[in-house]
Write a structure and sequence with these properties.
The protein has 138 residues and is α+β, with helices and mostly antiparallel strands. It has four helices and six strands.
Amino acid sequence: MVLWKKMAMWRTSKGRVGIETLKPLVIGIERLSLKSSVGIYPTEKQKLQNLFISATLTLKNRPIDIDTMASSVDYDALCDKIRETVKKRHYELIENLALTIAVTLKDASQANAVKVRIDKPLAAKKNCAESIYTIVEV
């Protein structure tokens, strides 16, 4: 049973470069702290609240043995995309915000799959919970 496949670059006898199937590359952003206009209650619509946003991107067929940005994803650019999406408008539900972020990151990175988790600390505190969050995968 093959659990993973190795990616490698090689030169053929005619000098051309070939690529074998790669092991998927996973890139993560963990608990990016942002203030957002999110929620259904009037008090939530009046002031920004803290959110923690995490994202996991799975990229297939990336040449990870080549040490250049051309074969990877710029983490700063991903964080900027999340910030832009959060600032864009008020979101009634964190589920919708998570979906919007996931689609944005997938388009920007050409990832095969994106998972976004949003933690809402104010809701957790209000309900005496350790954490309240949503997870969306695209």
